[in-house]
Design brief:
By secondary structure, the protein is an alpha/beta fold. It is built from 11 helices and 9 strands. The two termini are 26 Å apart. Bound molecules: uridine-5'-diphosphate and magnesium ion.
Length: 339
């Protein structure tokens, strides 16, 4: 009897649409003008092309126009649309995290609300996920719409970043992504501030697949990310994901001290002990110069040692989990991420 009861529950569970729910997270900031077109395209793609139950979570990142009112209207007509309003502008990275935390689906798709990430591609993301990928990443291909200086800056950033962190951040990889629910939970455990969502997701690992796409032009307005914000984003990525810059000066100190020591010793022996057989004719000022360089080297080295301690504190303060479990199979437990 009890068995039969379980079966009924199982069957109900299997038919339960919640089990196939897709969540779409869209951070929006002052997108009033372009949003209706974007929403229509997104809705079409989800409803007509994917055909699974879905929820669209618009995260209003403190818009100062009436973007939020618009979404509220849609929500009143269609419960598939949800609105998460942040109390002020927290920046896209944080808005994205808020949306991922609120998502209830088996898979979570994030994309920009300015029309640059074509919603028509969502079926491709879902298909890659159904074929076993846990993280599907949209990669910008073709000619970037950004101007030369932004392009050069971004290519420089990726080169430096990959070299220094040992991580492989693909140039052009975007926030147009799909996350399996198994990735959501460990992602939410990353509580550090100054976050770069892309970098954190890459840090988490899991089975990945890449989808190339040509970004559209922005539907309206100017991108919220000007040079200053982009530079901030780049520095944040470095500071949160690599400690290499901290060590550079320590290494420099070691080299400088070593060279100054060699030079100083040579001068000392040749000039003072042997009475200048090779006629170097080192003046007192030059010797003072060598002494100062030697001391500068020592100061830099001690700075490097301080960095070791700072980096220790830095890592500790991020409170990242020590490891992330993808799958656990043992007696009685057989599940993906969520329990
Ligand atoms: N956005 C946001 N908060 C911000 C800036 C932007 O939520 O402070 C949203 C914006 O509405 C858009 C997405 O993040 O949906 C990408 O922003 P944007 O187009 O300005 O950036 P870019 O395309 O240059 O990466
Ligand atoms: Mg954009």
């Amino acid at each position: 009897m009890r068995r039969a009861g379980y079966f009924v529950i199982l069957i109900i569970k299997m038919n339960n649409s919640e089990d196939r729910l897709l969540s779409v997270v869209v951070p929006i900031y002052n997108e009033r003008v372009g949003l209706p077109d974007f929403h229509a395209a997104l809705w079409r793609s989800l409803h007509d092309d994917v055909g699974e139950p879905f929820e669209i979570i618009y995260v209003d990142d403190g818009s100062t126009d009436d973007t939020a009112e618009l979404v509220r209207k849609w929500h009143a007509e269609d419960t598939n649309v949800r609105l998460l309003s942040l109390s002020r502008n927290f920046g896209k990275e944080n808005a994205l995290s808020a949306g991922i935390a609120a998502a209830r689906g088996k898979a979570i798709i994030s994309l920009d609300g300015d029309g640059q990430h074509p919603p028509e591609l969502i079926p491709k993301f879902v298909e890659a996920w159904r074929n076993g990928a846990q993280v599907v990443i949209g990669v910008r291909s073709g000619k970037s719409a950004a101007n030369l200086s932004k392009r050069v800056g971004s290519s420089l950033f990726y080169k430096l970043f990959n070299k220094m962190t040992g991580q492989k951040l693909l140039p052009g990889s975007t926030d147009y992504r799909l996350l399996d629910q198994a990735v959501r939970r460990p992602f939410l455990e990353l509580t550090e501030t100054d976050r770069i969502t892309r970098g954190l997701i890459d840090w988490l690992g899991f089975k990945r697949q890449y989808i190339n796409f040509n970004p559209h032009d922005r539907q309206q307005g100017t991108p919220g990310y000007g040079y200053r914000k982009l530079l901030g984003l780049a520095t944040n990525s470095f500071v949160s994901l690599t400690l290499a810059p901290l060590y550079v000066f320590g290494y420099l100190g070691v080299i400088i001290t070593f060279l100054a020591f060699l030079l100083g010793s040579a001068v000392l022996i040749e000039q003072i002990l042997l009475d200048d057989p090779w006629h170097w004719k080192f003046t007192g000022t030059a010797m003072l110069g060598i002494l100062i360089i030697f001391l500068v080297g020592i100061v830099l080295m001690s700075q490097g040692i301080l960095s070791l301690y700072i980096s220790h504190l830095h890592n500790q303060s991020k409170r990242r989990p020590l490891y992330v479990i993808d799958y656990h199979a043992s007696a009685g437990i057989r599940e993906h991420g969520e329990d």
